[in-house]
Amino acid sequence: MKNMLVIKQNIMVDSFHEPRPYKTKFWVTKECYKQLLKRAKETKMTVSNIIRMALNYVIFDEAQLEKLKDKEEMSDELVHRKHRSTVNLSEEQANRIAEISNKHGISRTEIIKRSIEIFLNQVNFRRGDR
């Protein structure tokens, strides 16, 4: 069963006033990149906000973290687009990614990539104002 994420028009998912000092590079597969763009268009959110939501969904939940550790690497071709290759993270997110990386031996880029893939495969997006 997939989880359902309902985004209401009047709810702010991400605070624009909160500083995000940790700029992090990442790479995703072509399919994942297309899904991110599709979700951003459907929800009228930025790709960066969706990525931060994906990270929160995976890195702070032990059940999802197990999936992150067990998931085999995708053999799909990676895409690198300079304008989409970085995301600004909060200190809490950056510290948690570093902790997971050190504890489980997974690169930080791989943690971000896998978190996005897990999130996009498990969460259905639906706008609550339709």
Automatic annotation (TrEMBL):
This is Uncharacterized protein.
